[in-house]
Fold these 4 entries.
Entry 1:
Amino acid sequence: MTKVLILDADQQPLSPVRISHARTLLSQGKASVFQRYPFTIILKESFSQIKPEQLGFTLQLIAVSAIKNKTRIDMSPFSKRGNR
C-alpha cells in the first residue's frame, strides 16, 4: 500500500496517509503539492491530529484455560513478558 507524506501548515511532518485520502485533500483545496519526489503534500490550515501514542493500550495479564469434557479444568494467569 503506497502512502503519501504529509506536512502540516508549519511544515512539521504528520503520519503518512493513503493515496486516496491525499487525493481527496488536494481536490477539496485543503492541501497542495509540496514536493514531487518523494511525493509530499502540505496542508493549508492547521488541523489537530491524534498522536499514535494516545491510541495504544497495554495488557497486564494473560489467562490460559483448558477444557475437558465441556468442563474448565485449569485457569492460570501469566504476567506479560518484557517490561514488567
Note: The mean pLDDT is 76.
Entry 2:
Amino acid sequence: MALLLLIGSLFALRVALRAMPVSGFLESGGLDLYIGNRKPQDAVSPRFGTRRNRQGGAQVKSRHRYKPAAVFGCAVMLSGIAVSAPHAQKPPPPVQPGPGAPIPLPERNPARIFAQPHPGEIATPEWSAQEVQDATDRCAMLLAGTGVKYRFLNPIREGRCGTPAPIELSAIGKTRAVAIEPAARVTCGLAATLSSWADGFLQPTARKHLDGEITNIRNIASYVCRNRYNANDKPISEHARANALDMAAFKTQSGDWINVLDNWALPPESFPAAPDASQDKTVTPPPEAKPDTATAPAPAGQIPNRRAETEPAFEPRSAFLYEIHEGACTLFGTALGPLANEAHKNHFHYDLAKRKHGAYCE
C-alpha cells in the first residue's frame, strides 16, 4: 500500500514539474530533462512558454530544468506523508486498568449536584416590627404554665436563618425542673414541646429504670445558621431556624451522667451466643411429652412473650435511652438517634419540622 502511494506521489510530482518552466541555465548542479527532440540552445519565447532556436528555426516544445536535490527532497517528503498518514489516523489504544486497580465511578446525577450558597449569605429582608411583636405575644401565651424557664433574645436574621422571637432556654419541665446546660437558643414552640416530653416521658422513664429523676440535660447544639450536615447541596437545617436541639447526656439525682454515645448500644456480652452450625446437621427426635409435665397453654386473652425468650434484657441505662427516644418520636417532627447515621451516634436530635406524612423517627 505504501509503495503504491509512493508511485502515485512521484507521478503527481512529475506532472506538476512539467508545468513549471525555469528561465536561464544554472551553472552547477543542473539537470536537463527533455521531452521529444529538444536542444540545449533553444531559447524561451516570451509568449505562450514556447521556444525558438537561435537560428530562427521551427518552434519546439518547452525545455525544463530542475535541481536534482529539489526533486529528490519533494519525492521523499511526499512518500513520508503517504506512509505516515495511515498511522497518524489511528487513535492510541485505551489504557486498561490492572487487576487490582479501582474502577472509577461516574458522578451521581451531576446535573442535580451543585453548590448552594450558605444560608447566611442569601439576602433576606429584616423582620418587621409587627412580625417581632406578634411572635413575642404568641410565645408568651404558648409558654404560660409549662414550667419553662427562659428569657427573650433579640430577633435573629442571618440571611435565611433566624427567628423573630428567639428565647434563651435554661430549664424545662413542670413537675421537676431540668436544667439545660448550656442554655439553648430556640423557639418558643420547641421549648414547650421539650417541656411536655420531660414531664410525659423523661422523668417517668428515669424513675422506672434509674430509681430517680433527671436534673440536667447536656446541650451540644441549638441555633446554628447552616444547611443540614453542613453540606452545600443539602436543604437548610432546622437548627438554622432555632427549631432544633441536640442533647448528648442526662444527669441523674445521684450525679451520674448517662451518655448517648456510651450507653445507647447493648454490650456484646448481653447478646445470646450464636448457635453451633454443627448442631443443625444432627436431628434428634423430640422426647415424649408426659401429661403431668406438659406445659399448660397461656390463659385466654394473654399472648406469650416470644420476644422476651430470645432477646436479652436491656441494661437499665440503655433501656432508659431507648424509651425516652421512642417517646420523643410521638411529639417531635424529627427524632434522630444513633440508629439514624454516623453523624448522630453521640446525641439525640429533636426538632419541629413540618412533615406531610407524620414524624420522622430513627
Note: The radius of gyration is 47 Å.
Entry 3:
Amino acid sequence: MVEHAGRTPVHFGDEWWGSFADPFRVLATKVADFFAPPAEASKDDDMYEICIELPGVAEDDISVALDHGTLLVSGEKKVERHEEGKSFIFSEISYGKFQRSFRLPGDADGERISAAFSNGVLKVSIAKKETKSTRKEIPIHK
C-alpha cells in the first residue's frame, strides 16, 4: 500500500483490481478528479501574494490577467507521453487546461501586480493601495 497525504491509499492487490469491475466507482473517481492546481494566499502590511503549484507546466503555457477585480490564472499542462505499446494501469498526474480565479480585496492595487514563475510555482504579488489618513484635527474654540 502506498499512502499520500490527502489521497486514498492505492492497494496493489485484489481490492485494487476489483475497481475495474465497477465502472460507476471508476466514473465517480474520474468526475471528482479535475485539474485545479493547488494555491495558497498570504498577506502582509504592504502586499498580497498568491502562490500556485504548477509542476510540469511551461511558463509560456500560463496566462495571468485581471478582470474587474478578479485575478485569473489559466493555462495548460500538455501531455508528453509518446510511449508506444504502453498502457497505464492508473495515473494520478493531471493534464489538460486549468483556470483559477481569485477575487481581490478592495484594498488591492490592480495597477501594481507582478508575477514570477520558478521551480513549478507561480507567485503573483499584488500591492495594497496606499491609504491616506482621513483624520483631521478639529480645533476647539473658546
Note: The chain has two domains: 1-33, 35-78+93-129.
Entry 4:
Amino acid sequence: MNGHPLTLSILQYKSLQEITGLLANRYQPEGIICFGYKNRQRQSAGCFASHVNSESCHYFLLLITKENARIEHEVQEFVDHRYRNGKLTILAHGKETVGEGIARGNLFFTSVCRYGFQLYSSSGLCLCFDYPEENFETNLAECSSNAYQRLEMASSFLTAAEKSLYEEHYAACLFLLHQVVEQACLALIRLFMAYRADTHNLSRLLELTECFSESAAYFPRELPEDQRLFRMLMKSYSDCRYKDAFEINDEDAQSLFKRVSGFFAALKSLCHNRLEDETAKENVQEQVFSALPVGSNSTENPMVHVPED
C-alpha cells in the first residue's frame, strides 16, 4: 500500500479547531484524525448581482474512543448540530478495535492512523501504533472479493426490481432499489477505503462515498422534489415491510428506478477503473465483473484527498 500523508492548510485546521475541542470535551477520546476532505467552490456573477466566490469543505474524521462501545450515530448527530463551517462525516471506533485492526493489517485503520492528519490526542503526543509489514496483494484480494459478492447481490436486486416494476409491484420495487444502493455503496467503500461499513442508512453510506468519488450526485437533494424521492428511498427499508398504509405510485417508482440504475452502472465503471489501477488486478478483475451487467456510464476521476491503498 502506497499511502500519502494528508496535509491541511492553516485555515482548514482552524476551521476544525472548535469542533475538535467540543468532541474532546464531550467524549474524552484517545484521538481524532482527519483522513480526507473535499473542497467545493462556487462562483456567481451577473448584471444585477455582485461577483461572489464561495467555498465549502466536507471533512472525514475518525474518532478513536477509549471504550469499544459504538457511539458513531450519536457522535454524527452531535457534530451535525454544531459544525457550521462545512460538512463533517465522522466514524468512531475504540482504541482496542483500531489497534487490533492495525495488527491484522487492516488497510483502513493503517492508512488513517499512519497517513491521516492528527487533530487531537489525549496525551498531547502523536498516536503511536505498531505497524506490521503490509501484505498489499492479499488485502486487495480480500477487499475485491467482498466487493464482488456485494456487487453481484446488487445486480440481482436490480434485476428483481425491474421485474417488480414491470409487474406494478411498486412497494417491492422500492425495497429492492434500496438494497441495490446499499449493497453497491458497501462494495464501493470496501474497495476504495478497505472499510467495512455496517449501516443500512443510505444517506450515511453515500456521504462516505464522497470521500473518493462523485457517486452521490446521482441522488441530488437540493430541490424539494429530489429530497422527497430520496427520503422515500431511504425509508423504504422499514416502511415497505412494516407500514401497512405505505404506497408509491408508478411515476415515483419509474423515477427512482432510473436514478438507481444510473448509479449502479456508474459505480461498476468506477470499480473497474479502480481495479485497473492496482497491481493485483489480474487475480481478481475477471471474477469481479464477469457476472455483472454491462454499464457504460462514465464517471469523473475520484477527487480524493485521502491515502491511497
Note: The beta strands are 31-46, 49-65, 87-94, 117-121.
